[in-house]
């Protein structure tokens, strides 16, 4: 839905266009419009004082994934924010607001560069801005695929062909966990600059750090967690006409830009360097949580001994050290299954012998047959790979955009997985307050739920 579109005179002045994607409550777009308006007024004052520089003209296209009705129900101050945004229109600042716009364009049939009926055709901007994209679930692999689709849409549909740049803001750590660098390179984008995220510097800022879709605040996580804005540009665009940073940021020098690219390429070539050692054995880990899990499972009593394994072979248990046996099942050799801690044994018993759900079907086994018809319309974005030897009897497919291997009966589900859920709760545990986006995850949780065990 087009909320408001301004008419403005360019007067042969240079035009800089801005496009905000996924702006949850439009408070960032409002602050950006206020900043641009102040800059226009400042330039006009300079002209009145005898400055010969012509005032630059700016265009702001603000978009969000929610419909106007959903946005109003979610945020009480929506009418006020949108009204304030519309009032900032001027002959030198064009503003348009659009609702129900998905930042990810996945309609391969549309060849006219009209990615969404809710935005003007051929909408491309010098500065494309997307802050804190999130799907509402903690899944690093899924978000890595999500970023690949975002970069694909940015470079093909949203960024100006000549010198457009894409500003992506992530919470510290997400860039590495979601493999952002590889996802950008897959679609011909390189990192030009990065710096701490700061909203437009305007008095009485309205921008809120709110979790996408749910409306919950980031305030409890800040300033403990830091957000970083990464600026990307096309790899083959060596002569960039406009500065890569947002106007209120300090523009990096060409040397700084070159150093940023060199550092990121060096980091990319440093193939997953490991640097966290186990204090009890010679194992190394890339993440602290992996090291903690290793110490908990392999060194529960602070024992220095840790069984090792040859590369490519399954880890063998040291039966001599294991004193906890499961009396209800046997291992491959016919003996009792053994565990190295009582916690591991109890977890095994809860999941395998006392679990409510002894069989949890994988996702591909519950795919709907009618999705095959929908998939035939999207075949341009996928190509077949060699079928794997599996009992599902379904040909594997690979998404050209993110490289994910999926099943031909779930291509539409693959695309729908990048649409943030509008519901706060999808599947809730029958015993505790935890909720899950997938039914399979809920079933797995209920097998281990501590509340169920206590009851």
From TrEMBL:
Domain of life: Eukaryota
GO biological process, one term: rRNA base methylation
InterPro entries associated with the record: BMT5-like, Znf_C2H2_type
GO molecular-function terms, A-Z: rRNA (uridine-N3-)-methyltransferase activity; zinc ion binding
SMART domains for this protein: ZnF_C2H2
PROSITE patterns per record: ZINC_FINGER_C2H2_1, ZINC_FINGER_C2H2_2
Keyword annotations from UniProtKB, A to Z: Metal-binding, Zinc, Zinc-finger
Protein name per UniProt: C2H2-type domain-containing protein
């Amino acid at each position: 839905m087009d909320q408001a579109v301004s008419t403005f005179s360019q007067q042969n002045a240079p035009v800089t266009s801005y496009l905000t994607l996924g702006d949850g409550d439009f408070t960032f777009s409002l602050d950006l419009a206020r900043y641009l308006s102040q800059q226009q007024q400042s330039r006009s004052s300079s002209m009145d004082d005898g400055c010969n520089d012509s005032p630059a003209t700016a265009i702001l296209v603000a978009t969000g994934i929610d419909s106007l009705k959903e946005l109003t129900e979610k945020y009480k101050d929506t009418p006020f924010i949108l009204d304030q945004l519309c009032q900032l229109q001027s002959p030198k600042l064009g503003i348009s607001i659009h609702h129900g716009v998905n930042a990810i364009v996945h309609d391969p049939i549309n060849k006219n560069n009209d990615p969404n009926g809710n935005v003007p055709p051929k909408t491309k901007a010098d500065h494309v801005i997307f802050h804190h994209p999130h799907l509402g679930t903690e899944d690093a692999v899924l978000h890595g695929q999500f970023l690949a689709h975002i970069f694909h849409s940015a470079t093909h549909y949203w960024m100006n062909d000549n010198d457009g740049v894409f500003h992506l803001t992530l919470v510290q750590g997400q860039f590495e966990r979601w493999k952002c660098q590889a996802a950008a390179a897959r679609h011909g984008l390189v990192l030009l600059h990065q710096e701490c995220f700061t909203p437009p510097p305007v008095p009485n800022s309205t921008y809120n750090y709110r979790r996408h879709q749910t409306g919950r605040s980031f305030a409890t996580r800040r300033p403990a967690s830091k957000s970083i804005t990464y600026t990307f540009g096309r790899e083959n665009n060596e002569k960039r006409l406009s500065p890569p940073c947002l106007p209120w940021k300090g523009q990096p020098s060409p040397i700084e830009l070159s150093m940023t690219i060199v550092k990121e390429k060096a980091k990319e070539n440093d193939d997953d360097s490991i640097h966290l050692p186990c204090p009890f054995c010679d194992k190394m880990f890339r993440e602290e949580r992996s090291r903690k899990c290793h110490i908990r499972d392999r060194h529960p009593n602070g024992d220095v001994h840790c069984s090792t394994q040859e590369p490519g072979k399954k880890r063998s248990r040291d039966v001599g050290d294991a004193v906890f046996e499961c009396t209800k099942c046997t291992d491959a050799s016919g003996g009792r299954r053994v565990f190295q801690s009582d916690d591991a044994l109890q977890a095994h018993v809860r999941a395998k012998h006392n679990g409510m759900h002894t069989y949890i079907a994988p996702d591909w086994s519950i795919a709907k047959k009618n999705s095959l018809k929908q998939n035939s319309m999207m075949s341009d974005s996928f190509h077949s790979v060699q079928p794997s030897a599996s009992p599902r009897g379904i040909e594997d497919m690979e998404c050209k955009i993110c490289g994910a291997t999926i099943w031909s009966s779930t291509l539409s589900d693959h695309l729908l997985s990048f649409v943030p859920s509008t519901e706060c709760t999808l599947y809730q545990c029958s015993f505790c307050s935890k909720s899950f986006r997938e039914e399979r995850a809920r079933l797995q949780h209920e097998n281990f739920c501590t509340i169920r065990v206590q009851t």
